[in-house]
Design a protein that fits this description.
The complex is a heterodimer of chains A (about 180) and B (about 300). Chain A is α/β, with parallel strands linked by helices. Chain A contains 3 helices and 10 strands. Helices cover about 20% and strands about 30% of the residues of chain A. In chain A, helix 2 links the parallel strand 5 and strand 6. Chain B has a single domain, classed as Ferritin, core subunit, four-helix bundle (Ferritin, Up-down Bundle), CATH 1.20.1260. Chain B has a two-stranded antiparallel sheet. Chain B starts with 17 loop residues before the first helix and ends in a 6-residue tail after the last helix. The interface between A and B is medium-sized, with 32 and 35 residues.
Chain lengths: ~180, ~300
């Protein structure tokens, strides 16, 4: 976070508000839980602070990003002392499941969506091709907790979710794609 | 006020900047194929495939928005105007992506050939000297893994499937292969892009990388012969789009493929002009009209 001038509103206050904005497609989970906030810049202005919020999209084609942009702008704009808000999406960093907080993982499970298993391999995103073709990893059932599940399809109701089935409790469920 | 706000698809771009041509080729490929994929929504062979093609379509159109976003920074034009506000001959997508979906065999064959090419291209662009471009490939490749997984799974399934499935995917590969080579047509201004390492690998080299991968997959499922048969067909039926103002260059002619020693190689050069120069097949007219219809009817409309 960068402070150019001390203002009545601090980057920490802005960050706290941004963190609580819900994901429109998974309302129990917030922008902060998903680790989407990359930077908050607060600059002094004649009639109040100008705020720039930089977010990392979880999925580049996600139609929810536009809603998130508006919701974040509205929440920050409601803070006292803020005169202008700009919300940007940045690809300077690639979003990975490691960015989801422990609380976010728990909330996803409560929403019956399995959080991605923590990545086994070091380094950035997995290459698209390796000797063994990339395969959708197994997920733990968010309903009963069993690991006895099948990965049915890497596609689901939203771009970021895959479809699974739990052989233990016999429920279909969704997972966030790694 | 942009030209697009009048509802006329007449956004004119100064394509003297080869970076813009590269972004339009990337964005237009994804936009047009994403639109074609979306035609499977509701009518795919089963529910999972409805979801799969709908999801892949959404991803591809999202990726197009990423590329148009970068083009917007270069040109100052709104990304929607860049994606939807151009006349047909201003689009730089390869012919492959504008073809009708045909049957399931063709759709899978095309998705496989295209996404393998996209993977090869994105891997190269990850090392681009243009930082913003290289960074964008991170998020896109993460998502494209699933597309490739989908395409390869179905290629294997159909190739090993009952006789009818194998026949259809073979026919699909034969029909798509020659168009797929058009994905590697050199871009106008490509030499400058390669010199500046914006495109760190030329399309000629990308073609060989793609061919190595495709040949290995086809060999695995016993369909290698398609490489020969698929490119021995007559050159594709390119037509200049009606509004094209080009000086009637020859239609694109692609190299043919030959097995030499232990690998398949393209033999010969590209000549004439195809999609990368704005020259399209008749199939593009229909897809363009549908794709841009809402934008043309309601300029500036927002969701």
């Amino acid at each position: 976070m960068t402070v150019h001038t001390a203002q009545s509103v601090t980057p920490e206050q802005v960050r706290a508000v941004v963190d609580t904005v819900p994901d429109p497609e998974m309302p129990p989970v917030t922008v902060g839980d998903l680790g989407m906030v990359r930077d908050v810049v607060v600059e002094a202005g004649a009639d109040g602070a100008r705020v720039v919020v930089e977010l990392i999209p979880t999925y580049s084609g996600c139609p929810a990003t536009q809603v998130i942009r508006e919701d974040v702008a509205e929440a920050v704009g409601a803070l006292t002392g803020v005169s202008a808000v700009e919300v940007r999406f940045s690809f300077a960093e690639t979003w990975t499941p490691e960015r989801i907080s422990e609380r976010g993982r728990e909330r996803l499970r409560q929403f019956a969506i399995a959080p991605p298993e923590r990545r086994q391999r070091p380094g950035g995103c997995l290459p698209a091709r390796e000797d063994a073709p990339f395969a959708l990893p197994a997920a733990r059932c968010p309903i009963c907790g069993s690991g006895d599940t099948t990965a049915d399809s890497p596609f689901g109701p939203t771009p970021c979710r895959s479809s699974h089935y739990c052989r233990a409790c016999r429920n279909p469920f969704e997972a966030m794609k790694p | 006020m942009s030209a697009a706000s009048t509802g006329q698809p007449d956004l004119r771009l100064d394509t003297a900047d080869p970076r813009l041509v590269l972004l339009l080729a990337l964005g237009d490929d994804e936009l047009v194929l994403g639109h074609r994929h979306s035609h499977w929504t509701g009518v795919a062979p089963h529910l999972e495939e409805d979801l799969a093609f709908s999801s892949i379509a959404q991803d591809e159109i999202g990726h197009a928005v990423v590329w148009y976003g970068l083009a917007s920074e270069l040109t100052g034009h709104d990304p929607d105007a860049l994606g939807l506000g151009r006349a047909p001959h201003e689009y730089r997508n390869a012919i492959l992506v504008e073809r009708e979906n045909g049957d399931w065999g063709y759709s899978i064959a095309r998705q496989y050939l295209y996404d393998t090419a996209d993977d090869v291209r994105l891997s190269a662009l990850a090392d681009s000297a243009w930082t913003a471009l290289a960074q964008a490939t991170g998020a896109i490749r993460r998502e494209e893994r699933y597309h490739l997984m989908h395409a390869r799974t179905w290629l294997d399934r159909l190739a090993h499937g009952p006789v009818e499935a194998r026949r259809r995917v073979t026919a699909g590969l034969s029909a798509a292969l020659r168009d797929a080579l058009g994905l590697f047509e050199p871009l106008p201004g490509e030499a400058a892009l390669v010199d500046e390492a914006i495109l760190p690998t030329s399309h000629a080299d990308l073609l060989q990388r793609w061919l190595d991968l495709v040949a290995a997959d086809l060999e695995r499922v016993g369909l290698e012969r398609v490489l020969e048969e698929g490119t021995s067909l007559a050159d594709a039926d390119f037509v200049p789009t009606s509004s094209g103002q080009m000086e009637a260059p020859a239609a694109l002619s692609a190299p043919h493929l030959e097995r030499r020693a232990d690998r398949w190689e393209p033999v010969g050069e590209f000549s004439g002009h195809g999609g990368r120069w704005g020259r399209h097949s008749e199939a593009f007219t229909a897809v363009w009209e549908e794709l841009t219809g809402t934008y043309r009817a309601h300029p500036g409309a927002r969701w």
